[in-house]
Structures are given as structure tokens and as C-alpha cells.
Design a protein that fits this description.
Among the domains are: 43 residues; 81 residues, conserved putative lor/sdh protein from methanococcus maripaludis s2 fold (Beta Barrel), CATH 2.40.420; 114 residues, Helix Hairpins (Orthogonal Bundle), CATH 1.10.287.470. Helix content is 32%, strand content 33%. The protein is built from five helices and 25 strands. Helix 4 runs antiparallel to helix 5. It is elongated and about 185 Å long.
Length: 438
């Protein structure tokens, strides 16, 4: 084979850097094997421009989808960040509004009262004797000699009143008495003389009778004038204002120079009280009135001496139930010779023998006074109010005994409003707990 044929038979060879090389032409058999081995070990051919176009299009589409998804997520996140807080705030506001629309109440449950046989009631302490002292004569107060707190005896002078008008009236009455006595003396002389003339028939019987009648008239006039003098002397004696009984001056309502008007139409001058013994008044409820009788023992306690009870005794009762309070007015007697109890003070009376049966007790501020009677507001398990009529037993002041209408498991509203009606839904606040019975 010449050189021209060799060049013609050369096969191009691809080098590793992608450039074509000229492979020497081998003999036919060996050339065929060499060609097969070359094709088997040759690298993957590079894509052409036509093959690269669809791949770039797919890649751009994928990038666009990713960018769109990111934008959509950003929009959703922005909406969520703006909407969710406002939505939550609106829900919270609606929830708070609905909660505020439901009134909040405090409740207590009835508790069992004491089984003690004593009955404790509020009492009013008054002096054994008391009097408001008024003037019996018109005038001006000259002076007073007893002030508040003074212990006086019966008949002791408290004040002195000047009565110039009354003094002149007394002087006139005494002059009129003298005139009447002179007229009587003249009538007596005339009557005696005419009686002597009648014996000699010098005068008629009619004339003699007239002179006798004139004598009797003059005598009656003297008695009338004398009575008027005594009346005015008694009025003048009221210039001295005196104590009607032994006691303590509790009020002095006048001063020197005040105008004094007689009778109850004027001002009170003094108030006198006798507190060696005291009258104590209590009102016993109808349920306990049957156990109260004169002579029954009791004890009186006052707030300033809570640990020192004073013995008392029932003196009398009104023997009738008051139509307004349904109570029995009871009067007790308490010895106060040491003056440890002040008159007109507040106290409590404990009757040693009271009704033994006890019921449930509730605070007094749970009662509703309606036209239907006494009621309480009960809250059921669903928070709905039910107005229930009750029957009240003993009144302990801050608490009352409920004989019918409630159970220990009921929840009773304290300080209920006047507008409260059945069926209203309420919210129960934290309960202060059941109160202790008396």
C-alpha cells in the first residue's frame, strides 16, 4: 500500500479533549476490531443545540413555579399575620361582652342553727322613772341651779323663773278679796238691822229677805276671791322649778334670760331620769312568745361589758301580738344600784328558757320583701335564679332563722337587687362561705 492509500484509509479519532484526531489506518481485520473497541470506549456525545432547548425550557418552568409558590406563601402569611390577631381580638371582645352581660352575685348556703334552749333578742334599756320638766308659769328664767349629770332629790329646786305679770295678778286678786270681805261686812250689818226692824213690822218681809240674800251673795263673793288668790299663789309657787322625784338630770335645755312659756307648748326645761332600776323592753317573735311569762329569769348584756351579764326578770307583757311586727312586747326589770348600765343604751336579753327547736339560719341581707311575702333568691346548678318564698322564725339581728323554704344545699344570693326576678341567668362569684349561726 502506497502512501496515498494510507492517508485515504485513515479514520478520525476523538481525543479526550473533544477534538478529532487522525487514527492511522490498520489492516482490515485489525481495523474493524479497533473500530468496535473505540466505539465501545468513546464518551457520551455532547448534546446539540436542538437537544438543549427543551431542557432549558423545563428548567425555567420549574424556577417560575418555585417563585410563584414563594410569593403565594408570602401573601398567605401576610394575611394570616393581619387577620388572625384581629379575629382573636374580636372573639375575645365578644366573649368579654357576653360575660359582662351576665350579672355577678355572691351566694351563701343556709347553716344549721344552734340547739340551745336560749333566746337572744335586742333590747332597749330605759330608766325606771323619767320625766320631761316644763314650766307652769310664764316669765323669764332668772337662774338655774342644776346642770346635766346632777343627782337631785325630790323637791329640790332646779331653776327660778321671774313672773312679773303673775305677781300683779296675785296682788289684784288679793285686793279683790279685801273688797269682797268689806261688802260682806256691810251686807251682814244691813241684814242684822233689817231683821230687828222686821220684828217691829217696820219693814216688809220681802225687804228683809232681800237683805239676807245680799249677805249670802257677798259671802260667796268672798269665797270666790279667796279661791282666786289661792290659785294665783299656787302659780306663783311654780316660779321655783323643782324635781318631781329623785334622779339624774339628763337634759338642761334653758339658760338665764330665756323666755319661758307655760305648758307643753313651750320648750322643755329639764329631763330627769331615775336609773337605780331599769326597765328593759324586748320584742319577742310570735314563735317564741308562748314561752314568755312574768317572773321568768333572763340576763342582760351590753356591748361595753360583754363578759358581765346582769340578771333580769320579766315583769309583764303586753299579752298581745303586734299587728305590725308580729312580736310580743315584754318588759323586764334590772337592778342598777351601782349605775353600771347607762339608761337608753342598747343591749341584748337572753331568755334562759326559749324554744328548743332550731332551723336553718341565713344572713338578714338575703331576704327580699315583696308583696307576695318574704322571699330569697336561689341559684340552681345552671346559674338560673329562682325566687322562693320562705317562713322566718327567730330574728337574731344579723341572721334570721328560716323555718321553711330552703335546704342546706341551696345557694342563696346575698344583697339581691329589687329588680331581681326568676329566670335571670347569673354568674356566681367566689363565695365568702357560710356564716356561723348564733
Amino acid at each position: 500500500m502506497n502512501s496515498d492509500e494510507s492517508k485515504h484509509n485513515e479514520v478520525p479519532e476523538t481525543s479526550q479533549n473533544g477534538k478529532h484526531a487522525i487514527a492511522p489506518q490498520l489492516p482490515e481485520t485489525r481495523a474493524t476490531d479497533r473500530l468496535l473497541d473505540y466505539r465501545a470506549h468513546s464518551p457520551t456525545p455532547l448534546p446539540t443545540a436542538e437537544s438543549r432547548a427543551p431542557s432549558a425550557t423545563k428548567q425555567r418552568s420549574k424556577h417560575g413555579l418555585i417563585i410563584g409558590a414563594i410569593i403565594a406563601l408570602a401573601i398567605v402569611a401576610g394575611l394570616a399575620l393581619g387577620f388572625l390577631p384581629r379575629w382573636g381580638q374580636n372573639r375575645s371582645t365578644a366573649r368579654d361582652t357576653s360575660q359582662l352581660a351576665i350579672p355577678s352575685v355572691s351566694v351563701v348556703s343556709p347553716v344549721k342553727g344552734t340547739n340551745a334552749s336560749s333566746l337572744i333578742l335586742p333590747a332597749e334599756v330605759k330608766p325606771w322613772l323619767e320625766a320631761s320638766i316644763y314650766a307652769r308659769a310664764n316669765g323669764y328664767l332668772k337662774n338655774w341651779v342644776a346642770d346635766i349629770g346632777a343627782h337631785v332629790e325630790a323637791g329640790q329646786q332646779l331653776a327660778l323663773i321671774e313672773t312679773p305679770d303673775l305677781d300683779q295678778q296675785l296682788a289684784q286678786a288679793r285686793a279683790e278679796l279685801v273688797l269682797a270681805q268689806a261688802n260682806l261686812h256691810l251686807a251682814q250689818v244691813t241684814d242684822d238691822r233689817w231683821k230687828e226692824l222686821l220684828k217691829t213690822a217696820s219693814v216688809s218681809e220681802q225687804a228683809a229677805a232681800e237683805k239676807a240674800a245680799a249677805r249670802e251673795t257677798a259671802s260667796a263673793s268672798v269665797e270666790a276671791s279667796r279661791a282666786n288668790v289661792r290659785r294665783l299663789e299656787e302659780l306663783v309657787s311654780f316660779q321655783r322649778v323643782v324635781a318631781p322625784f329623785a334622779g339624774t338630770i339628763t337634759i338642761r335645755a334653758v339658760d338665764v334670760g330665756d323666755l319661758i312659756i307655760a305648758g307643753s307648748g313651750g320648750n322643755q326645761l329639764f329631763h330627769l331620769a331615775q336609773a337605780d332600776k331599769l326597765r328593759v323592753y324586748v320584742r319577742v317573735p310570735q314563735t317564741g312568745a308562748i314561752g314568755i311569762a312574768p317572773g321568768q329569769a333572763a340576763t342582760l348584756t351590753i356591748p361595753e361589758l360583754p363578759d358581765q351579764p346582769f340578771p333580769a326578770k320579766v315583769v309583764t307583757t303586753s299579752e298581745s301580738i303586734s299587728a305590725t311586727s308580729r312580736t310580743l312586747l315584754t318588759q323586764l326589770e334590772v337592778d342598777n344600784s351601782q349605775h353600771r348600765i347607762l339608761p337608753y343604751s342598747y343591749g341584748e336579753v337572753r331568755f334562759e328558757q326559749g324554744p328548743a327547736n332550731s332551723g336553718l339560719t341565713l344572713p338578714s341581707n338575703t331576704l327580699l320583701f315583696r308583696a307576695e311575702g318574704l322571699q330569697v333568691a336561689v341559684v340552681n346548678t345552671n346559674g338560673v335564679v329562682e325566687l322562693r318564698k320562705v317562713q322566718v322564725g327567730r330574728d337574731f339581728g344579723q341572721t334570721v332563722e328560716i323555718s321553711a323554704g330552703v335546704t342546706p344545699a341551696d345557694r342563696i344570693i346575698t344583697n339581691p337587687s329589687d329588680s331581681l326576678v326568676s329566670g335571670i341567668k347569673v354568674r356566681v362569684a367566689e363565695s365568702p362561705g357560710s356564716i356561723a349561726s348564733k
